[in-house]
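Hello support,

Our group uses your service weekly, and this is the first time we've seen a run hang past the timeout. The protein is Chitin deacetylase 8-like. I'm not sure whether the cause is the sequence or the server load. Input pasted verbatim:
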Amino acid sequence: MRCCLVLFLVFAFVAGQELPLAEPCDEELCQLPNCRCSTTSIPRGLLARDTPQFVMLTFDDNVNIINIETYREILYNRVNSNNCSSGVTFYVNHEYNNYQLVNELYNQGFEIALHSITHQTPQSYWQEATPEIMAREFGDQKLQMAHFANIPYESLKGVRIPFLQLGGNSSFQAMSEYGLEYDCTWPTITYTDPPLWPYTLDYASIQDCVISPCPTASIPGVWIIPMVSWRDLNGTPCSMVDSCPAVPPFDDEDAWFRFIVTNFERHYLSNRAPFGFFIHEWYLAVNPTVKRALSRFIDLVNNLNDAFLVKSYDVIEWIKNPVPVDEYRQQPCKTFTPSLCLPASCGPLASEHNEVDYWMQICNVCPRVYPWINNPLGI
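Update from on-call engineer: The timeout came from a worker crash unrelated to the input. Re-ran successfully.
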């Protein structure tokens, strides 16, 4: 079966490798809900004061019994000013991931997105990855995540490539093939003031290529959520909060809160492009002051009438059908059906890629071997 899966993936992409070069965006032809040019303009020409300020808080890497405590402490049971639950997105990779806890996060109303099966080094692996490799890392991970966490396959919409390393057109080809709708990997240091809004890859992007190679082809329907860089205390751009070189003292909560708000206001006081707070949980764990400042910032957002902490895919849905903030506030809250988890503790599971035996906490029947690339279900 594994051999058949690999042959299918190779066959699926042979015909799709010659992609048309993306042309400059034609605003007359590129129309919502399915196409949007790369621009700093607010969708449908809304005024900034009428535009909801979306805040996207995201965490990378596996979910485990240590970092879940942070998530429970600062994220659970939060509500925006429209009385709808706050949203957060988790870009989860496979190795050492606790799928029972992923199921818990999903049932809290958070978004689960994909961060690859292997998360392997060196970084050049992702830089040079073919469409086939990206399909195995992300297309197969979509099946893997749905299977072991027992969450709906169709709920998995987003991708972030490890190390923010783009691979040209490859990952976007795989996304298109597997119904993955958006990518949040691509930093911008040029379009920060005013910030760049999300857009599709139907046409050529104006976004600066910070970590090459960037996509050049026309790949209709795939959305880009730009990682709009913060500015640290020296004005240096940083895509992830934990990568900022010059930051406030780690014993000064007020300074950290001001630092966060200053970066937020670059969006809120200009074109209200979605504000990203992109971070790894370990940074909060080792810096409690930053964790408290983040919690205060979430309190601030939750109490603003025109700002909303939402899942990343919620931003895409709003852009497809943008409405003024007053109308947005009146919309019914989104609902979902919680997913049951019949817990199983599996192991030791032999691995086929190294000599390590693994344990897995899942919501399904235990696999035969440790799941990995080319055998995502461990059959």
